[in-house]
Structure formats: C-alpha cells, structure tokens
Write a structure and sequence with these properties.
Rossmann fold, globular
C-alpha cells in the first residue's frame, strides 16, 4: 500500500501542471526552525545536492474556494534553509563537522474528493557526514510521506512538511555515521548507482522467473510462485494471462494482487489500468516500461492511479482518458515515475 500511496501523490499535480505554469499563483515555503536547541551537535555546516528533476518548485497545492492550483516555491534556496535549521539547532558548542544532503525528491500534492481534501508531502534523500579524511559516510536514508485530511489542507500540509524537514535534521545532528563505508564527494553525486549495487534486481546477470507480489520480493529476487507459461497480447510485449501448475493441472493465476512477473528472464510490470503486464527493459541502470496513466482524485488505496509526479511539467491529462507514458521504477520503493508521454499511435 505504501508504494501505491506514493504512486498517487502527485498525478493530480501532473494533470494540472500546464495550467499552473500559465498562472502566477504561488505558495511560499519555509522550513520551520526547531523550537529547541540540540543538547549535542557534531555538525556546523550542511550542503545540499539537489538531484530532483524539477528544481524550480516543490509541488502543487490548491488555493481558495475554487481550488486554484499554485506552485510551492521556497522563499529562499533550500540549501540556505537547511543551513538555517542547523544554525538554530546549534547552541554555540557544536563541533565543526559537515553534512551533505543528497536530495532526490521533495514535493507537495493535494487531492480533492467531495468536500474533503487530502494533502501530501513526500521527502526522499540521503544524508552524509564528512569524515576527518575528507571522505563521507551515510548517516541517514529517508523515504517518507506525511499527509493531512481536512476541508482545506493547504496551510496544514505545508506546515507538516516544513516540520518534517526540520525534524529530520534535528534527529541527526547528535549522531555520527558508521564509517565502515566511505565515499568521495563525486560518488555522493552519483549515489543511486552505488545504492543499487546492494539490490539483486539491479545486480543479477539473470533474473529469476516467477510471480512477485510486491516490489520487496522483486528487488530481492524472491518469487512467490512459479509460472508454467503465459499468454501474450498478440505480437505485443504484453502478457494478458499467466499460468501455474497445481497438482498436475494447469490453472490461471489472478493478476490483481501481483506487482510483476519474470518470464524467460524478462521483467513484466502489472498495470491495473490495463489489466496486463507490460515489458520493462533495463537501460542506464534503471528499468523502463511504457504504460497508460490516468489522473484520479480518489484517495482510496484500492483505486489509486499508478505513477508519480517528479517535477515533470508541461503535460496535461484529462480526468477520464488514459495516455501512454514511458515510466521507470523507483528503485527505492517500487513506485512508477512518469518520464515522458508517448505519442506513437501503435501503443
């Protein structure tokens, strides 16, 4: 459910991004300063490596009675704001240590249903501490969502997101990193590739055939069921039915509770909107596939649309039609990241 929650967080923002860009509405964002100083702090400075696809804003919220879309804009650069948080935590006795935050995702989104709004803030990144020899070690890894439900959630979800960031720094200033693994600053800037080295899905020379009910089993290459054979959708790289053999008899496996299957060493991702498995191909150390996306306003986990909005602006999806998008798997949590809309009529 966690993956599906993150999958729906920003599709609504994706659907309205064009309109937002054409407007001048904005929502200011400032990270809340901690109310208490740290008893002990090892760090005096923090640097931010902003690896988000879109660094011009941090999501989209709704303003006013008509729910006009507004881009969330930091009142000052995020690097300066994180430094202000650290300064506020330190009581003058802080040691001279340095932190580096490799920021992968930070954005807000809101979903409306009837007379209720659901607000979300998603934060994903790695925090490193600098060692005495000039290298860096991982201090904390975060993949966090905070949410809020109300008739008007904007101010409250922005507040919650702001507090989450401040608390993330606050809980780490009094910790030292495990220095077993050390990285250069250049390695930190490409840390995704290093992090993937511990994941079987990205490291195996041959993927294991079978049924995978969730991303955790897929990334660890631990299938829950064997597949006897599959049925393809004509000549297209799409699987419409999968089968297993039980007590000597072949029977179809229900697709609805499955995340992916691997058949003859090839990965196929299940898309509920199409009710079939689409082939994924590995390139540049990521898994990409093409599948349809539909915008949705339902916050119910069982009806969530697949896909994330990672700063991809300039695409407007209607509420009912579904459009094919190239997508890739978020290797950390298994959510699907829209990359670009597919214009081909052959899909």
């Amino acid at each position: 459910m966690k993956t599906h929650l993150k999958g729906m967080l920003l599709l609504t923002a994706l659907c309205t991004s064009c309109m937002v860009l054409s407007q001048k509405r904005t929502e200011d964002f400032t990270i809340s300063l901690p109310t208490h100083q740290a008893d002990k702090s090892y760090y005096k400075t923090i640097k931010v490596i902003d690896d988000r696809i879109d660094t011009t804003s941090i999501g989209i919220v709704q303003q006013g009675a008509l729910n006009a879309k507004a881009r969330v804009i930091p009142t000052s650069p995020l690097s300066e704001q994180f430094q202000s948080v650290l300064n506020s935590l330190n009581n003058g006795n802080a040691e001279n240590g340095s932190l580096v935050l490799y920021l992968k995702q930070l954005y807000f989104a809101e979903v409306s249903k009837a007379f209720t709004e659901f607000g979300y803030c998603y934060f994903q990144g790695f925090l490193f501490a600098k060692n005495e020899d000039g290298t860096y070690s991982l201090l904390e890894k975060t993949d966090t969502v905070v949410d809020h439900k109300a008739s008007d959630v904007t101010k409250e979800i922005v507040r919650k997101g702001s507090e989450m960031l401040g608390q993330f720094i606050a809980k780490n200033v009094s910790r030292k990193a495990d220095t077993t693994m050390k990285y250069t600053f250049e390695q930190i800037k490409q840390f995704d590739d290093i992090d993937k080295q511990s994941i079987a899905l990205y490291n195996s020379t041959q993927l294991k055939d079978g049924v995978y009910k969730d991303y955790l089993s897929l990334k660890n290459q631990q299938p829950q069921k064997e597949i006897t054979h599959v049925k393809f959708y004509g000549s297209m790289p799409k699987i419409v039915r999968i089968y297993e053999t039980v007590d000597g008899k072949e029977q179809e496996i229900k697709k609805e509770d499955i995340y992916a299957v691997i058949y003859k060493g090839e990965l196929y991702i299940y898309l509920p909107i199409e009710n079939l498995f689409n082939k994924a191909e590995k390139k540049d150390n990521d898994y990409y596939f093409v599948g349809k996306l539909r915008s949705g306003g339902s916050p119910n986990a069982g009806n969530l649309s697949i896909g994330m909005f990672f700063g991809a602006v300039g695409v407007l999806l209607a509420s009912n039609p579904a459009y094919p998008f190239e997508q890739k798997i978020d290797y950390i949590n298994g959510a699907f990241i829209p990359v670009r809309e597919i214009q081909s009529k052959k899909y």
